[in-house]
Amino acid sequence: MMTLSLVGEIAAGSTRANHIGKANAASYAASIIGSISAGSLFELFGFGPIFAVIVCLMFVAWLGVFRYLKPDETRIHGFPFSDLALNRRLLTLSSFRFQYAFSVTLVRTWIPIFAGVAAAEGGLAYGGLAVALTVVAEKFTNMCCQPFTGRLSDSYGRAMFVFAGGAAYGFVALLVPFAPTIGAALALPTEIVLVVPSALAGIVLPAWIPLEVIPTQVSMFGEVSPAFLPLVALSGLLGIADSFREPASMALFADEGTDDGGVASSFGIRELVWRPGSVIAPLLGGWLMYEVSMASVFYVGGLFALTGVGTFLVILVWSHGRRALVEW
User: Which of 107, 122, 202, 290 might form a disulfide with 301, Cβ 3.0–4.6 angstroms?
Assistant: First the structure.
């Protein structure tokens, strides 16, 4: 939160979403690389070296901040949080964000559950690598798109991007339970196979490698169903949809904080509004999965996003005028 507050405060108003998008993209890249490298290190060396690497990385990051980030000489008197809490623009944004938190938490949490749990429980029973790809797909597309979508929202209006991104996220979430139907209709394969070039196939490997010879083909994710590729594609689309919403939303909160002298306070409100959804949604999702169905989790998650953008649009037009969607 503090990092993004600093980015929002340092960036000029006309390029704020662009810089926030780049900061978020760097965060997603670190998350993807960290997840993959941590898993590899654990398999090779166990837990201890992983934490040693984390300590070293944090020390290098601290040195970078100490060396290159100029001290903040500004001082805010009073308690800006109380003024920002009643800010009309922030209240309008919060009407969307409160509901959207339920949507994102439900969908992001339950996509790997949907991919990994047994078919008897409504899942697809994929292996660990296949499940990981469904998670990484959203982060990867989000990472790639945010610098571009942030720049676009600076040019064409941020409220429109919040609305469009939230609506798209809701519609894509509603399609997730239909991944098996889509895969079956397209007659997609049940196994993803990598064909090894003939020049390499059959080469005898050293004795210390578990595999004796290089095979002619390698199964990438083991046995999967036709739903696998549609699920990965839908996860990627969720990342694209959210990449339109996230930098624009952060920039709007930063705009209000900068105007009222408390960027960190405005981001604090942003996080506070998100917390109820992030806490209650997992409980709601668990109840829906066991008492109703796996698909109902995604239906409810999608509806939360759609009701959120609907509420946002109504309040925006009612309180700020019909052109507010394109002027903010």
Answer: 107
3-state secondary structure 50-79: HHHHHHHHHHHHHHHHHHHCCCCCCCCCCC
Other beta carbons less than 10 A from residue 235's beta carbon: 26
- Angle at 210 (CA atoms; ends 220, 224), nearest 5 degrees: 20
Q: CA nearest 148: which of 59, 240, 58?
A: 240
pLDDT, position 75: 58
pTM summary value: 0.80
Pairing verdict, β 191-195 and 217-223: antiparallel
Give me the pLDDT at residue 9, please: 65
Domain with 68 in it: what CATH number?
1.20.1250.20
Mean pLDDT value across residues 73-94: 68
Q: What is the mean pLDDT of residues 69-98?
A: 72
Q: Which domain holds residue 78?
A: 2-190+225-327
